[in-house]
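Write out the 3D structure for:
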Amino acid sequence: MEEALIVERAIILVRDFAMARARNVARGAESARLAGLLAQKYGYGVTDSIAEILGSKSAASPIRRAVDDLVTGIDPKWREHAIERWSLRPADLGASACCKGSTLAN
């Protein structure tokens, strides 16, 4: 299969996953923070897999850019949320910070 077609299909795969997460946010089933993180991790996994298959990180870079754009569409503050998540010890989703008084915080 041609490299460009592989990358295009990977972007479609990632887009479909991100759209499902966005629908979950719209119906209140997931927070934007969680949906963005799920889409990002899924998308980066696809990106890494395609880079390995093609033997080139740069060949997969359009996928990575698409992932970042899709995640921004779900959670515009995803970069800020990532910094918050990694500042926690141990690193966590940050549920205790966003859900005080909820059983999810425990």
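Helices lie at 3-26, 32-54, 61-74, 78-87, 95-98.
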